[in-house]
Design a protein that fits this description.
This is Membrane protein. With 180 residues, the protein is an all-alpha fold. It is 77% helix and 0% strand.
Length: 180
């Protein structure tokens, strides 16, 4: 695939920047909606599905690193695009859950409470930041700008992996407090 022209590059950068702002703002608005929608009891399973999605994403990210270190670009591309797809699915499931359910308060006490909140806050902040990095990394890879892709993934990979792993850890810490 050939590299996009500068005019197209500016358009793509603008779209990436807009999405990187619009997605977290949309999620924040959804979280702030007090009137919850009833989509059925199936939505109570979404946090569990999200934990599976985050776990799979973590594994795929590590596989992507492994494949690229082995020089297997096709396998790397497949697993990374699958990780990107899972991230998109996670976002949809996350929004669906939070427009149908109140946030679950953490009930842990003692030393685990500040650990939980540190992980939660760092997870949330970095999940906002990683959107821009992931979109740029995917764009650079798909447009054949491999050097720019490599420079971007130096930051994208550890942030995305941290967000995926801490998403699972936060889930396990709060899971006992979900209403079952």
């Amino acid at each position: 695939m050939e590299t996009l022209q500068p005019v197209q590059e500016k358009k793509v950068s603008r779209v990436i920047n807009v999405l990187s702002i619009a997605i977290p703002v949309a999620v924040a608005v959804m979280l702030g909606i007090r009137q919850k929608v009833d989509l059925g009891s199936w939505t109570s399973y979404l946090p569990h599905l999200n934990a599976i999605i985050n776990s799979l994403t973590s594994v795929l990210l590590l596989l992507g690193l492994f494949f690229i270190k082995q020089g297997n670009v096709q396998a790397h591309k497949r697993v990374m695009l699958t990780a990107f797809g899972l991230g998109s699915l996670f976002l949809v499931c996350y929004i669906l859950y939070h427009i149908t359910h109140e946030s679950t308060p953490f009930g842990g006490q003692g030393w685990i409470r500040p650990v939980y909140y540190f992980l939660l806050v760092s997870h949330i902040v970095l999940s906002i930041v990683v959107v821009w990095f992931v979109l740029r990394a995917v764009y650079f890879a798909l447009s054949g700008q491999i050097l720019r892709h490599k420079k971007t993934v130096k930051y994208t990979f550890p942030i995305w992996l941290y967000v995926s792993v801490t998403g699972v850890v936060v889930y396990f810490l709060i899971e006992p407090y979900y209403l079952h």
